[in-house]
Design brief:
25% helix; 12% strand; 3 helices; three-stranded antiparallel β-sheet; alpha+beta
Length: 99
């Protein structure tokens, strides 16, 4: 995944008070809330020398293994909602491949 902060940027997970969670190197489950950066319950924050931010819609698309800008025909609020309520394509393909 590409982070806007450059090669020194890292993904850190923080709790709602901003405390860094340790030993968590995977993305939290995306949820379907609007204006949430795709995430309500377990905030994933991109932390870099430029500051911190939430996932972009394209990063959420990549986490869900859909093509970049697949959801760009609707507002960002709807994009986050669709991606949070969707299924990860690669996981579903793996589950269904033997049927």
């Amino acid at each position: 995944m590409h982070y806007y902060g450059g090669k020194d940027s890292v993904l850190v997970k923080v709790d709602k008070k901003g405390n860094i969670k340790k030993n968590q190197n995977k993305s939290a489950c995306l949820t379907g809330g609007a204006n949430s950066g795709g995430n309500h319950s377990d905030m994933d924050i991109i932390w870099s020398e430029l500051g911190c931010r939430r996932y972009t819609p394209i990063e959420c698309e990549r986490l869900q293994t859909v093509p970049d800008n697949y959801t760009d025909s609707v507002s960002n609020s709807q994009r986050y909602r669709m991606l949070g309520n969707g299924w990860t394509i690669d996981v579903i393909a793996h589950i269904l491949k033997n049927i």
